[in-house]
């Protein structure tokens, strides 16, 4: 289940067309950490800093390689978030207004992340 946080951010990242380099892994973790209360079911809906982090991360990945880097980073931090609800992770990008076209799943293969059409 901890890999779901990877899935929701990865999905967000897959929609990006930005030209910035991906942030360092520590910054990626900071971007998603405001979403933990929502993803863990402690709040009803994602709040401003959560969606801001999702949108910001979405804007930092421009290439398939960038998305793979972010994906692998999230895989490394996912064990820190064992309480993530899979259903909440699946709808988070939409609730934050981020368009996606990648299936959210615990076993996301980072090497298969591609730019959406």
TrEMBL record:
Keywords: Lipid-binding, Signal, Transport. One of its GO terms (molecular function) is lipid binding. SMART domains: AAI (SM00499). Residues 1-20 form the signal peptide. It holds the Pfam family Tryp_alpha_amyl. InterPro entries: Bifun_inhib/LTP/seed_sf, Bifunc_inhib/LTP/seed_store, Plant_nsLTP. It comes from the Eukaryota. Plant non-specific lipid-transfer proteins transfer phospholipids as well as galactolipids across membranes. May play a role in wax or cutin deposition in the cell walls of expanding epidermal cells and certain secretory tissues. Belongs to the plant LTP family. This is Non-specific lipid-transfer protein. It comes from Ananas comosus (Pineapple).
